Amino acid sequence: GKSLLFVGDLIKGVYPASPSSWLFVAIGILATMYMQSDPSMGLITKIQQHLPLRVHNDESVQRIVGVVTLLWLSLILALRFCLKLLLSYHQWMFEKHGRMSNTTKVWVPLVRLLSSRKPLLYSYQSSLPHLPVPAIQDTVSRYLESVRPLLTDPEFKRMSDLANEFESNLGNRLQRYLKLKALWATNYVSDWWEEYVYLRSRGPIMVNSNYYGMDFLYVTPTSVQAARAGNTITALLLYRRKVNREELKPCVCVFCERMFNTTRTPGVETDVLQHWLDSEFVAVYHRGRYFRLWVYRAGRLLSPREIEDQIQRILDDASPPLPGEEKLGALTAGDRIPWAQMRKQYFSSGVNKRSLDIIERAAFFVTLDDEEQGMRGDDPEGNLDRYAKSLLHGKCYDRWFDKSFSVVIYKNGKSGLNAEHSWADAPTVAHLWEYTLATDAFQLGYTEDGHCKGDVEPSLPQPQRLVWNIPAEAQVSSSLAVAQALADDVDCHVFPFREFGKGRIKKCRVSPDAFIQISLQLAYYRDRGGFCLTYEASMTRLFREGRTETVRSCSNESCAFITALEKEECRRLFQLASERHQNLYRMAMTGAGIDRHLFCLYVVSKYLGVESPFLKEVLSEPWRLSTSQTPVQQMNLFDLKNHPDFISLGGGFGPVADDGYGVSYIIVGEDMVNFHVSSKYSCSQTVSNNHFIRQAMMSYIQGMAIVPRKGRMYAFAHFHFLFNHQLFIVNTHSSKIFFFFFF
Question: Which residues are catalytic (predicted)?
Fold first, then answer.
């Protein structure tokens, strides 16, 4: 363990060089000393003046070792600086396919050369550039352009006056403070974003913040609940091992070290993320009881069959819940302040504290659900919707929403997860879940009767039942009532769009993401009769500790196209709208977004105690259409050609605005897109299952909007949609795009 960590830290610390390069530097210096050459421009000569040509004593050896090490460290810093400069170049992303600039042609081999060594998970962090602070006039200008199609002329003039007043006065003062922060902060956005957007929110995190991931659409590898739990838990722990050893490719995320052994603890003013270095057990919930399940025995990870047997013991346990135990998890689903007060009053000492510590220190949380879910029965569409709602909120007390993620294993073997949002974003969890599903189905596998494989040690101790002493007055009914009202109001709809997928869209020389985003805007326009502020999440992983930026997908070009589409005058406008969307996405990924900059300026204004009418209005604008693409990051794990039924359903989230929609989608293979739509029943203007998305998608592909046009495919379209949210180098040759994975 410790030796592996030391080796990993050493390899990571010297990247892009290698530990063995010290020996080459030493050999080079000794060779120059004996050959009496001086490629070091005088440095070796100075060494020779103080050291004999033949080394006879320990002091001389130490001095040579010191000089070699100093030169070696200087070489490492120089290589790292060069790599950072190269990674700061983003112009390649904006170039059209087949029109690579000379600068990019030089840049590609240089990056390949400096990143040719196989990196560990965090090897690139010290070489990534810091997120730049955009010029305030650029951000204000982009903001006004983004809201122009949403405002009338008088409204736009008023907003322009507010923006110009802000830019010329208070904005410059706030910008200076923000640039000061950017000089010493690793990322000027991420810490404030985590604290103020997530941890300081005092409302329920269930539905409002947490999100879910689903199982395979058509296939359930086994119908044995305990067996599915055994393989799933094993796969998750194998992934944790890869994280600890940094064996994952660096494309995953810098925040995945907080994926396991992590919980969000409530506070009156702000919550806190707590992370432990390791945990040898998981917390399990079944029919109102909590258990500690040890998954290691004398340092050995239990076999899948051993974990299955332990899970079966929990399923066979007929003991009733203790008073107050069954619905205890509702505390994590309701408002944060009552949970913080309850935690301090009743869970700060004694058996309650010990049991709560076990849940919070567990590697992750497991719910053995007594319901059956999935696309099944006489109403597969309705069952998919109920499956989504179950993963999003369950019964409001049978998940532990504070854990970094909770795995749900249903009675019929279907699985899923619910993830807390503050510690990382959805692509990180999606990477974990892809690995888990693929390892479960294709690597670990099951016996013919649906049980896990592996041997069983008969002397394993029973899972430990957690003990609680909850006073009668410490009822969780108020938190449960808040959570239940929120859960009952959520309208979820999941539908696989099978008519076509990215394969047919790309033949039309159009970016699949732009196609879907404009389809969503058309669907909203037909549903509500107008346009709205549209949020699309973009990753900023090109920068150190980058998380997300907003792509304001509703643009002048997309609105012009949709208006023309209704009049059947749209082909040229669709192309312009698609290209505009791609450009907005590129700008967000390269640090030229709008919303994170304005958010940080608002935080600075709060620290200084000054009010900005412009910033206050901007940050209060509702995102009535909040969208996100769930990336398929590890297509190599899924052989869709030989196993076409093993396709992922993706995941989803709740609506951001009370009168809006939350839309998540996953582009699966070449011929399918899965959509997850959420809204609230309490809003009479929103209906998740309204068929407008399907109709909008079909409107385009039927020839109203898209005509193949030669030479209009962007390299970035391939970059984003084939390998979404990962960093690749693009090289164009013979009208093909090759991807050299390095980060």
Answer: 421
